[in-house]
User: Fold these one by one.
Assistant:
Number 1:
Amino acid sequence: DVKVTQSSRYLVKRTGEKVFLECVQDMDHENMFWYRQDPGLGLRLIYFSYDVKMKEKGDIPEGYSVSREKKERFSLILESASTNQTSMYLCASSSLGGRVYGYTFGSGTRLTVV
Amino acid sequence: AQKVTQAQTEISVVEKEDVTLDCVYETRDTTYYLFWYKQPPSGELVFLIRRNSFDEQNEISGRYSWNFQKSTSSFNFTITASQVVDSAVYFCALSEANAGGTSYGKLTFGQGTILTVHP
């Protein structure tokens, strides 16, 4: 069964900490994405990557960075966590070509910054 | 820039009622894809349907149907004879394609509609 795995389901961090959210996919997908989900705002794109060592800013990149050293892994980094980054974070991947579903999402990481 | 608007924040119906979730989108691309996802209380996103910009045929899958109209930039979703298990947050989303039209680019989501179906 193909999947996208996010390393933590729940995470609690302190303000000012450096936080790493890890995402691994086993489908050999080229494209990977990080979203955050907040009530009433839907899912908003933070960063995405179309290839290894490649990254592009999404709609809300401020306060975040990413790393993609290997094709299967896409990490989201909060350099100095703040309380307004408390949210649900979802990772997704997609492939070149016409795979019917298009995108595969992880189960999400609920991050609380205290 | 792409934009997806789901004007209905919350909808509440009684079981067996029909319900339509509205979705309006904006894009300058000629090749694009439209999606609907369901997010039940467990939190995972469940794929429901994908439509490409060249296929305006409406689609029916069981109690679910979708109406795609390019003239009004709308992609509405109807649930017929709703059931309690349909209670969830529903997202409409729009994806651009790359220059060759062979790859899914970034996915832009609407704000989501919370559907509650009462017994």
Number 2:
Amino acid sequence: NAGVTQTPKFRVLKTGQSMTLLCAQDMNHEYMYWYRQDPGMGLRLIHYSVGEGTTAKGEVPDGYNVSRLKKQNFLLGLESAAPSQTSVYFCASRRVDVGTEAFFGQGTRLTVV
Amino acid sequence: AQSVAQPEDQVNVAEGNPLTVKCTYSVSGNPYLFWYVQYPNRGLQFLLKYITGDNLVKGSYGFEAEFNKSQTSFHLKKPSALVSDSALYFCAVRDMGSTRGNNRLAFGKGNQVVVIP
């Protein structure tokens, strides 16, 4: 049982380039989340989805887009990368039941130069 | 919007001594509270949660946490720390007082725990 898998694990981008981060979960979870982790700031929510075909903005959505075309996948896109988007990105998922905990992927370390 | 405060950047404790990591929260309704641990270059792992019922909850690896509604706190504790407990600890809250808050998990900035042999 793989849980939550993020692809890629590491990436270096040049300013202005675009990329897509893929999150896949095999637990049939309804809810999926994208967070970014920066030193001293904890995890901040970028976007989330409460089901296939639906997405919503989190705390820091600017510069990112997401899509949830399939229940098991949640994609995070950077259309024009900026150095401020250098971070570690985490995907998480959970069941819809009230009170359930979220399961996290291993993270993607992104550097924008 | 819900929020979490973890006031200390780093907690140093000698091996075998009690470990406490502090967390306070702010929500509009009832809180669902969680603790996660992160080891270097890894994702977050769930430790324990408070949903309802007994204010003292027990979790993985000998950790426990006490929910205190009047002080809006959810401190993480371990009676006897191990060197292997050295990691980054995150407190998180879900606000059950709103639909939007219910869907979202807000994290504190994290506390680095260093257990000294």
Number 3:
Amino acid sequence: TQLLEQSPQFLSIQEGENLTVYCNSSSVFSSLQWYRQEPGEGPVLLVTVVTGGEVKKLKRLTFQFGDARKDSSLHITAAQPGDTGLYLCAGVNYGQNFVFGPGTRLSVLP
Amino acid sequence: SQTIHQWPATLVQPVGSPLSLECTVEGTSNPNLYWYRQAAGRGLQLLFYSVGIGQISSEVPQNLSASRPQDRQFILSSKKLLLSDSGFYLCAWSVSGDFTLAYYGYTFGSGTRLTVV
């Protein structure tokens, strides 16, 4: 069974700070996706990374896929209250099966 | 553009009562459809998925069932709810075809918060 771990589980920071959250597994994935979920809403896809070592930027968010395709990180620069939410990573294996991590709950205080 | 509608947003039901949650997708044809349940701190658990009308695959044994009576309609049901059925239920769709989910991911509905009392 493939498992994804996310750390930290909870993170509370002040507006303007930088942060990094992590998504780790012992399994290799063909791709990895990051979603953001706001309270009472469904997750929204932020990015898909496919190539080992790939880096993608989405405004103040930087996503990196590990060289071995087993892990990923999400870095947010100058966090804003609008970044508050649950960040979920999801790994896709070569059999097209999805596995979601438990998420990192981020709170950005004004 | 494609949209996904899920209702109701919240539901409080007594133990032993039936359940019917509905999900519809607009703006696309022949989507893959999914029901997920989200428990706090445990991520999303896939309950059912469907690649076409009348085609339902179940991922976990449970007190729930799913049906797809029309191409863009997906229904989650139960004959008798249990306390353990409480949770946040999410419907989602993806583009059909090989490897599309891996690249384009899911589009989720806004969810139904079910509380069984």
